[in-house]
Design brief:
The structure is a homodimer. Chain A is of the alpha+beta class. Chain A is built from 14 helices and 26 strands. Chain A has helices at residues 12-22, 39-58, 72-75, 79-85, 125-135, 180-201, 247-251, 276-285, 311-330, 345-355, 365-370, 391-416, 424-433, 446-456, and strands spanning 26-28, 35-37, 62-63, 69-71, 88-99, 106-108, 113-120, 144-153, 167-177, 207-210, 222-229, 235-245, 255-257, 263-265, 267-274, 302-307, 335-337, 359-364, 372-377, 383-387, 418-420, 437-441, 459-464, 472-473, 480-481, 484-488. In chain A, helix 2 packs across helix 6. The first copy, chain A, is globular and about 80 Å long. At the A-B interface, strand 2, helix 2, strand 3, strand 4 and helix 3 of A face strand 2, helix 2, strand 3, strand 4 and helix 3 of B.
Chain lengths: 491, 491
């Protein structure tokens, strides 16, 4: 069925683009850089949201909602932040259209110019810290542990569905703390939450690490990241958690009276993951036949296809299938019985492979007689006959197996894509010939980092958490280095 | 504890504004007309969302996501729609800021002007029908039953928290059908879903009806509405469902091949409810002591306050409370044990009254000895002692009672606020002295409707579904009328 898609080996990028559209996940829209998330893609995103939201709440966070628009002047208040975010953004300048006096259609009403332009939020630190100013006066008001699910906008020049779009959906946590230690612990805790979500639910293995100064979020003192490895050897930053120090509190004059009755600036974190995770999910597991979804996030976990010639056969099969469906639903499994008469089984098999449904049951007359069913796994594309007795428990186990298997497969691949190198020649050779993470000594300077990026397009993805110290020399400058860091070309 | 709030009788509008802020539901933001929805308010909205989303899915709908921005030219494609929505909206004209060459801060980069201005969606019919064009070619592609949860923006001149804000959160369903009958049935079905949600979950009684031509959604052939009655005698439109005919299909050239192999325009509906429902919820049930929440939507359904003097006492109470909490949670009840040592019981009682927690348990040493607990209802402000044996089942029943009671109370009030009148003088007198719905004959013309509105500020809220036909004369024009309609002043 691979004929539907360009193969990964032929053109990985084209494979991805085709897959996103053909599996009905998303498509481009009439608005440059903005996507339409189609129902099937959105159903996966909803499952991600639900799980993440549960994890945020279990760690003590609450949801809130802050304005879409940010006064232009707010962006200038934090010096680094404005450099990072004020440049490419959607600017609202007017609040009214009028009928075109010279013809058809509507034009901007020149008299409805805003006194101060408003920016569509690229991220919400500024508007949120301007709000927190009124919420915080004493240590008793702290911590504030808010999250918001929202759309944001960054005017990207080159966009790709899910991976980089002008508008995207995300969550952004913004927390306020009385001490540096507490804020740092929060930023690290949320990195752990993201890593657990990626590995346990998305089945995407990630490296947890800290960004170099150059790759930090604009306005952060430390940016923690989870980095995933795609099948084409490029890294993908899947989530970040920032320790913001007192930068935003100072920019927005947010002080509190501490237990010692002294005025102090508030400590902050922010952390976010976005619909970009959809890109990571798709690229980590899928194959030339289509999507491969982890059972934990698949909108439909099991599809049942009847194999029959005559209407009476379908009737007998349906009666049995309804029993199976009821049993599976009782186990909390989402199951679809596709008895559409207009499509042939072969077409359905291909369709559900393309859509990444983890388990497919095919059942015909012969199976009814034998009290069995053909069970196909999407991850391995293997089939086996199973008895209908205890099929519900067998499927529960199978879904667990698939979840574990695709994680292990991805982890094995990822582990094999971390290459230790000691010279710049080797570094460049590995990047060009193999790809993946290159684990190499670096002198710790932004200058070296930028030169390497310029010459090879590889960036420092992170310094892994718990990275062993090791004396060495920088592959680029030959200067002394205390540890290796992970470089990669990336999305 | 009423001292915290202006009373309703003193100044209803001020009571509402104070309540929204003091109960931590929402507040104004630095951006004109845009609100911050605070965690407690958002928790209620989340419960509404969850329930509505379940009801949409049970009726066969799926979620999707469409772009925030709409090309200006799209708005002009549907003639009535542009009149209704193109006028007061946020217009994006540029995509970049730059450092101000003359000083500090940032300014709009004049070179980053967009070729075509983009509008922040006031509603999404245009961008969605432009998308559906590519999804629909045959009757086999129909129906499409999509919903989206999103933020929208309408540049309102006078705003009030939840009731009318420039940015608000909502859901908008957009469906496409092969026949007129099916689309009309869908629009009516969603009205029923909204009415069921309002009455069963929000405990807000509503009148289901159809709008007069003048009050229709811009671009609709019929607008169905649910209308609620607030405690100040003003009506509030709580949700609308539109039968759009083929207007948007024609505007965006969306045709399909029907079963008879003929090209035909697609039939459409759209339907939405918004954070305005929060306003309806607050104003329907709350009193001078604060919020009154229906148990179905209360983030915390039961709060437990320990009454003690010494630390040992608290220890003994806590041990018992932990048992109660476990029992209540096992019944699916959300419960909070407030053992904060910094606040006195009286302060806590007032606080949870203000926040509308449906049930409060107070438990002290004496109660432990008697194996009982003091149970206070927020709706009636009454207290009683209850045995701790079977307390979980008693609370389940109590929550059901409260849910039913506040609905019945609101319904009784609302029913009493429908006044039949036969003359224009009586009409004006009822509006001024009593308020509420005025049920009167109308000649069916927009002209009369607008004159009445001009003179009395009352509009036709709806023609109720199943309204009895009855010969009469229009209260304004004296012309013949076939039925009475519901007028009211409204939010």
């Amino acid at each position: 069925m691979g004929k539907f898609l360009t193969s990964r080996s032929e053109n990985y990028s084209q494979w991805y683009n085709e897959l996103v559209v053909k599996a009905d996940l998303a498509e481009t829209s009439a608005v440059r850089g903005c996507m339409v998330i189609k129902p099937y893609g959105y159903a996966i995103w909803e499952k991600m949201q639900r799980q993440l939201d549960n994890m945020f709440k279990e760690t003590g966070h609450v949801n809130a909602y802050f304005p879409l628009l940010i006064p232009k002047s707010f962006l200038s208040k934090e010096a680094e932040h404005v450099e990072g975010f004020a440049k490419e953004c959607a600017v609202v300048t007017h609040h009214r259209l009028m009928n075109d006096p010279n013809g058809k259609g509507v034009v901007v009403d020149p008299e409805a110019r805003l006194e101060e332009e408003l920016i569509i939020r690229p991220t919400s630190e500024t508007i949120i810290w301007n709000t927190y100013k009124n919420w915080i006066s004493s240590y008793r008001d702290l911590p504030i542990l808010c999250n918001q699910w929202a759309n944001v906008m960054r005017w990207e020049m080159r966009t790709r569905l899910f991976l980089r779009t002008a508008e995207f959906l995300w969550q952004e946590g913004h927390t306020a703390h009385a001490t540096r230690e507490e804020a740092e612990a929060e930023a690290k805790k949320m990195l752990e939450v993201y890593a657990e979500f990626a590995e346990k639910y998305m089945a995407v293995p990630v490296v947890k690490g800290v960004k170099s100064a150059n790759e930090r979020f604009a306005g952060a003192l430390d940016t923690y990241t989870i980095e995933a490895m795609m099948q084409d050897g490029k890294a993908l930053q899947a989530g970040t958690s920032h320790f913001l120090g007192q930068n935003f509190a100072k920019a927005f004059e947010v002080q509190f009276v501490n237990k010692e009755n002294q005025l102090e600036y508030v400590w902050a974190t922010s952390w976010g993951v976005s619909t970009r995770l959809m890109g990571a999910l798709i690229m980590t597991h899928s194959d030339d036949n289509g999507l491969v979804l982890p059972p934990c996030l698949a909108p439909t976990q099991v599809v049942i296809v009847p194999i029959y010639k005559k209407a009476e056969e379908l009737e007998a099969i349906s009666a049995k299938v309804n029993e199976i469906v009821a049993k599976l639903k009782a186990k909390g499994i989402s199951v679809k019985f596709d008895d559409n008469d207009q499509k042939k089984p072969g077409w359905k098999f291909a369709e559900y492979e393309l859509k990444g449904v983890p388990v497919r049951l095919a059942i015909g007359n012969r199976d009814l007689e034998n009290n069995s069913v053909e069970v196909a796994r999407r991850d391995t594309l293997t089939k086996e006959q199973m008895s209908l007795d205890g099929i519900d428990e067998a499927i529960v186990k199978l879904l667990d197996d698939i979840q574990a298997n695709i994680f292990n497969k991805a982890k094995e691949y990822r582990d094999g894509m971390i290459t230790k190198v000691d010279t710049y020649d080797e570094f460049k050779r590995v990047l060009d010939e193999k790809g993946g993470f290159v684990y190499a000594h670096w002198d710790g300077t932004t200058e070296t980092e930028e030169k390497i990026k310029e010459e090879t397009k590889a960036t420092i993805r992170c310094i892994p958490i718990g990275n062993p110290l090791e004396d060495g020399v920088c592959i680029y400058s030959g200067k002394p280095s205390k540890q290796r860091v992970l470089f990669a070309r990336s999305y």
